[in-house]
Amino acid sequence: MSSSWPLWEVFVRGKRGLNHVHVGSLHAPDAEMALRNARDVYTRRNEGVSIWVVPAEAITASSPDEKDPFFQPSGDKVYRHPTFYAIPEDVPHL
Amino acid sequence: MNADNATDSVYDGLVDQEDAHWAFGTGFHEPLAGVDRAVPDVDRADLTAYCLMLGDDALVLSQRLAEWCSRAPELEEDVALANIALDLLGQARLLLTRAGEVEGAGRDEDALAYLRDEREFRNVHLAEIECGPFAGGDFATTIARLLVFSSWKLAQYSRLRGSADPVLAAVAAKGLKELAYHRDHAAQWTVRLGDGTEESHRRMRAGLHRVWPFLDELFTAHPVELRLPGVAVDPAGLRSEVEDVLAEVCRAAGLELPDAAPAARVAGKAGRDGVHTEAMGYLLAEMQHLHRSLPGAKW
C-alpha cells in the first residue's frame, strides 16, 4: 500500500517560531490526509501550531553535484555584505 | 536536521528549557490545574460508580486501540490510532483518580485499573468487543467502532461540561477537543472506505454491521445515572443527536444505515452492571497481568 501512496514533505511552525521549518516526510493518499498524518506523526509532543504539507515531487532541489559551482563563488565575495556602511546610532534593529 | 541549521529546528523550543525530560515536559500543563475538587452533595457510592463508568469506557477502548500498535495498514495510521488511545488513557486516568477520591477507600487509578475483576468494570460493551486487528474484524471495523463511540462520547461530554461535579465538568471540557478529532478521524476513514473501492465498501459496511447491535446499550440509562440528576448525563437523551451524526456520515460515505437488532442483555443487565461479553476477560488478563504479577511495577 505504501508504495502507491505519494510522499509528502512536512513543515511545522513551532509555538515560538516565526517560520515553518522542514521536519520530515510521510506517505498519504492526498493532501487532506497528509495534513492529518502530519498532525499525528510530527506534532504529538506539543511541537507546533501550524503545519504545511507539500508533495515531495513538487520540490525542485539543487543537486549535490552542482554544489561547488552553485555555492562556492559566493564564499569569497565579502564585499557583497553591506558591512562598509557607517550606521547612524539612532537606527535600531539593524 | 544537520548541524548547520540546527538553530532553525522547531524542536529547539523543546530542549532549551530546564526540564530535562523534554519528551514529556515542554510547556505541558496539568490537565485539571486549578479545578475545584469538592465532591457534590450526592450519594458517594453512586458518584463513584458513575466515574468508573466513564473511566472504564475510556480505559477499555484505549486498550483495544493500543492493540493496533505496529499492526495498522500504514505507519502514519499506526501513530494516529496510538495517539487516540493515549488521549483516552489520559481521560481514563483523570476519571479513575476521581472515582478513587470520591470512594475514599484509598484506591488510586492503578488500583482501580489493574486490581478490579471483570464484574467490577462498568464500561459499555462497544468498548470491549473485538474489532480487529485480531478476531472480530479489521481496520474498517475498528473505524466503525471509533465513529460510533466518539460520536456518542462527544454528545455525552458536551452535556457533562455542565455537571455539578467540577472535576467531571473539567474532564469533559478537556476531552471534547480530543473526541472531536477522534470522530473526525473516524468519519474521514468511513467516507474514504465507504466511497472507495468495492472491497473497501464491503469491509466498511461489514464493520458497521458488526458494531451496530451495541448501539442500543449506549442510550440505555443505568439507575446510577438516573439517581444523579445535575451530575450525570441521561444517555437516553443523546440518541437522536448521535443517530443524526451517524446518518450524515453514512450518507456521505454511500453506506446504508445497518438495520440490526440490539445485542441481547443478560437478565436485563449489560456492561454498566458489570456483565460483560466473553472478550472482556481476555482483555483484562492482558491489561492487568503485569501489575498483578509484579505489584507496583514501574518502568
From TrEMBL, chain A:
Pfam families, per database record: PaaB
InterPro entries: PaaB, PaaB_sf
Protein known as: Phenylacetate-CoA oxygenase subunit PaaB
Organism: Saccharothrix coeruleofusca
Lineage: Bacteria, Bacillati, Actinomycetota, Actinomycetes, Pseudonocardiales
Gene giving rise to this polypeptide: paaB
From TrEMBL, chain B:
The organism's place on the tree of life at top rank: Bacteria
Swiss-Prot/TrEMBL GO biological process terms: phenylacetate catabolic process
One Pfam family hit: PaaA_PaaC
Protein's recorded name: Phenylacetate-CoA oxygenase subunit PaaI
Gene name linked to the record: paaC
SUPFAM superfamilies per UniProt: Ferritin-like
Protein source organism: Saccharothrix coeruleofusca
NCBIfam families to which the protein is assigned, alphabetical: PA_CoA_Oxy3
GO cellular component, one term: cytosol
PANTHER family: 1,2-PHENYLACETYL-COA EPOXIDASE, SUBUNIT C, PHENYLACETIC ACID DEGRADATION PROTEIN PAA
